[in-house]
């Protein structure tokens, strides 16, 4: 572990301020540096590169857009210290309605068993609570706490801002067509 830290500390990204390992500032600086490095390498060299075949596959284009969007979301929300899966879960709870694990799993596109570790982390951080649903004690209800509502509000606003910037200037028909394609792909995958 110390060897890894020594190498990180000696890297140019940390020359502007050496902070002891484990301090919150270190994690934030590291995440920002990693996010920028990811952008520089992956997005510049792969997603935007002319060497990558930009064939007209809607699925490949969607996959490239998904990776670029996930990176953008993670970069803009780096201060929340959440994973993409945690951001997705909180975004789907942002409307304030509690959901069962199955309902949330369907909304985020994950199996309930996969979602369990995400929910464990969010619960440990105080963003969600798990309780029983009225009338069905077997069903677990996921609800946001005050800190979860605050994080979800920031996430929802960030997603709205990104979407508005991306779709600004596009004709309404193009946006409607985009949603029609997404609906068709979701239907095909269901």
Structural overview:
InterPro entries: HTH_MarR-typ (IPR000835), MarR/SlyA-like (IPR039422), Tscrpt_reg_MarR-type_CS (IPR023187), WH-like_DNA-bd_sf (IPR036388), WH_DNA-bd_sf (IPR036390). By secondary structure, the protein is mainly α. The chain folds into two domains: 1-81, no CATH class; 83-190, Arc Repressor Mutant, subunit A, CATH 1.10.10.10. The chain has eight helices and three strands. It has helices at residues 2-10, 24-47, 58-76, 84-93, 101-108, 112-124, 146-167, 172-189, and strands at 99-100, 128-133, 136-144. Strands 1-3-2 form a three-stranded antiparallel sheet. Strand 2 and strand 3 (136-144) form a beta hairpin. Helix 4 packs across helix 5 (101-108). The longest helix is centred in the N-terminal third of the chain and has 24 residues, at 24-47.
């Amino acid at each position: 572990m110390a060897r890894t830290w020594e190498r990180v500390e000696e890297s140019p990204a940390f020359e502007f301020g050496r902070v002891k390992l484990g301090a919150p500032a270190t994690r934030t600086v590291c995440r920002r540096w990693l996010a920028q490095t990811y952008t520089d390498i992956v997005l510049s060299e792969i997603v935007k590169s002319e060497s990558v075949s930009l064939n007209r596959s809607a699925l490949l284009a969607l996959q490239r857009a998904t990776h670029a969007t996930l990176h953008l979301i993670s970069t803009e929300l780096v201060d929340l210290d959440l994973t993409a899966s945690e951001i997705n879960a909180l975004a789907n709870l942002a409307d304030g309605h509690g959901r069962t694990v199955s309902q949330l799993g369907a909304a985020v596109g994950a199996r309930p068993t996969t979602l369990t570790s995400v929910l464990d982390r969010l619960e440990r951080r105080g963003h969600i609570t798990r309780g029983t649903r009225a009338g069905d004690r077997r069903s677990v209800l996921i609800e946001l706490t005050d800190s979860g509502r605050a994080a979800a509000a920031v996430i929802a606003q960030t997603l709205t801002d990104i979407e508005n910037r991306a779709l600004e200037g596009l004709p309404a028909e193009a946006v409607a067509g985009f949603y029609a394609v997404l609906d068709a792909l979701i239907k095909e995958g269901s």
